Amino acid sequence: MTIITDLIKYSRLAFSLRDILKDSPISLEQSKEVIATRFYNRKKNFLSLIEKGVYQNPRSPFFKLLKVADCEFGDIESMVNQDGIEAALSRLLAEGIYISWEEFKGKKDVVRGGSHFRFSERDFDNPYLPDYYQIQSSGSRSAGTRTIFDLRYQMEKGYYLLPMLAANNALDFPIGLWSSIPPSGTGIGSSLRYWKVGKPVAKWFSPVGESQMHISMRDRLALRYIIYGSRLWGAKLVKPKYVSSTEAVKVAQWMAITKRQFGGCSIQCPVSLSVKVCQAAMENSLDIQGTHFFSGGEPLTEAKRCQIEATGALVRSIYSISEIGRIGYGCPESSITDDLHLFHDSVALVQRRRKLDDTDMFVNAFCFTTLLPTAPKILINVESDDYGVMETRDCGCLFEQLGFVKHLYNIRSFAKLTGAGVTILGTDFVRILEEVLPGKYGGVATDYQLLEEEDGIGQTHLSLIISPTVGMVDENAVIATILDELGRSTPSNKVATRLWSQMKILKVKRIHPVAKTHKVMTLHLMKRND
Ligand SMILES: [Zn+2]
Predict the structure, then answer these.
(1) How far apart are CA 379 and CA 368, in angstroms?
(2) CA distance 258 to 499
(3) E-strand spans in 308-459?
(4) Ligand 1 centre and the CA of 394: distance in Å?
(5) CB-based burial of residue 342 (10 Å sphere; 0-12 exposed, 13-18 middle, 19+ buried)?
(6) What residues have a C-beta under 5 A from ligand 1, the ion?
(7) Cα–Cα distance, 526 to 530 (Å, whole number)
(8) What spacing in Å lies between the alpha carbon of 393 and ligand 1's midpoint?
(9) What is the per-residue pLDDT for 435?
(10) Helices in 146-198 by DSSP H: which ranges?
(11) Sign of the torsion angle spanned by Cα atoms 354, 356, 357, 360
(12) Distance between Cα 330 and ligand 1 center (Å)
């Protein structure tokens, strides 16, 4: 990356910051209007994206797949006009127009109708977006993808914010963030969006610090550029304050003080950190009753929700995937733990029944299609590594009134391990378990296994199972080896391992590895297998 190209990117960033921040804040009424317009234009948006982004873009993987399937634009147009987008997507899926999660990540060839392809994630980039500063998705459900930090798209996601606060009666209270700094885009994106809807973030805590993380000069500059550049256009964004995941009491104290002063408050942070804040509030008798946690990054499980609600606080899911966008927000009227409304104004979802590699297990994987012209990637039926339940149901909340009648719940990943709001692909562990550990500590590849578990108080732990046949090993040294190896692979893994190390998420168990399962196993998948 040369200084010149960086400068071009920063100047683009400056212009779009100005364009976005110079106008007055978006109101709740405007948010509702934009959502209604998206629903109204849904078919038109979808067809336009397919026509321009696929049929007029030979670089698109779907250009090639649709050719193999002998499917013309007119065929898709008539399917959509006759039966709707989802019915058309289901038919396309049956014709092989989809990309599995492994294919999307470039881990597998795409084989359709005798043709072989291998795509990289960049091939899916929306060609109509300028090349902005890129961010790492370490704070979200997708591990290690670089996604274009397009401010217009960041703002598109902002239209859901005021409805979320209104649906939870949280519009009048201050908002805090406990969210990572760049290269993760979550914190700075949220900060800009909340400003844009007239609800500037009152306090931004970051679980990672610049010096501690050895953040690159480029990322440091980008963060300062956005924070101080925004001030030129009147937006006083707060600077992040480093509060490690072991200092949750500081966040709990801020919430208790803010609640006392203003009658309430909300915080947006990963699910595991929400649990930590609530444990700290309980241990220190801090009153955070009635406050709101808007939490994503990992599944909101029953145990985690109970732990949060024990303080009298409320928790709502945020479901986001950086390559796809904002997918949904929690329903305030539902008794199902992680029930959320699918934002089908901007994404379409159909499910694909698929087998998991090396197992006899099947899941109904989510396949997403992007609908907005500002989406960073143009995707048709692209699997995320999540599966779950989708149903149409009346709940009576504001989201339903806005047209979001589809609910998702029991959402889990079939390929990732989560903890402290950061994720690492299970496959990143395989080489370490099969080669590094046996090489260094003895035994064979099958003597090591990783298991994701949740304890009774809602904390996620990763257990490294080492077969007793391996003999004596220094458990701390083994854990240090794993974190060291993982941290070397990608910047997002570096963030993850730092937090995992802080939170002591990885523990050793000296038992025989569980037979006939994944090398890397999550508890929910094991339960399905029973
Ligand atoms: Zn609802």
Answers:
(1) 7
(2) 27
(3) 314-321, 325-330, 340-342, 347-355, 362-370, 382-392, 406-413, 416-419, 422-425, 448-454
(4) 7
(5) buried
(6) 331, 333, 395, 397, 399
(7) 7
(8) 9
(9) 84
(10) 151-158, 161-167, 186-196
(11) negative
(12) 7
Outline where 404-521 has alpha helix (H).
426-431, 437-441, 475-489, 491-503
| Residue partners of 245: CB distance under 8 A and separation at least 6 | 207, 272, 273, 276, 420, 499, 502, 503
Which 3-state string (H, E, C) describes 69-80? Answer: CCCCHHHHHHHH
Q: How much distance in Å is there from the Cα of 340 to the middle of ligand 1?
A: 7
The pLDDT score that the predictor gives to residue 220 is 77
H-run or E-run covering 356: none
Q: Which residues contact 89 (CB under 8 A, 6 or more apart)?
A: 348, 350, 367, 369, 380, 381
Nearest to 448 by CA among 459, 458, 438: 438
189: which 2 tokens? 């994106």
Expressed in angstroms and rounded, the spacing between residue 333 Cα and the centre of ligand 1 is: 5
For residues 190 and 342, the answer to whether their CB atoms sit within 8 Å is no
Q: Is the previous residue joined to 183 through a cis bond, with omega within 30 degrees of 0?
A: yes
Distance (Å) from CA 262 to ligand 1 centroid = 26
Separation of CA 406 and ligand 1 centre (Å): 9
Q: How far is the CA of 334 from the centre of ligand 1 (A)?
A: 7
* Per-residue pLDDT tens over the stretch 404-441: 999 999 898 877 666 555 566 666 677 788 889 989 99
Cut 0.90: pTM above it: no
Q: Give the C-alpha separation, 16 to 462, whole Å.
A: 42
- Helix (H) / strand (E) element for 527: namely helix 523-529
Alpha carbon of 395 to ligand 1 centroid (Å): 5
What's the CA-to-centroid distance between 193 and ligand 1, angstroms? Answer: 22
Do 14 and 227 contact (CB within 8 A), yes or no?
no
Model pLDDT for residues 8-27, shown as the tens digit of each residue: 566 666 667 777 777 789 99
Distance of CA 503 from the midpoint of ligand 1 (Å): 34
d(CA 481, CA 432): 9
106 versus 247: the higher-pLDDT residue is 247
State the distance from the centre of ligand 1 to the C-alpha of 38, rounded, in angstroms. 19
What Rg do the C-alpha atoms of the chain give, in angstroms?
Answer: 23
Q: What share of the chain is helix, strand, coil (3-state, %, to 5)?
A: 45, 20, 35
Nearest to 411 by CA among 342, 310, 315, 503: 342
What's the distance, CA 355 to chain centroid?
A: 23
- Report which of 70, 66, 68 is spatially closest to residue 57, judged by C-alpha positions: 66
Q: Average pLDDT, whole number, for the chain? A: 85
The Å distance, Cα 458 to ligand 1 centre, comes to 24
Percent of the chain with pLDDT over 90: 50
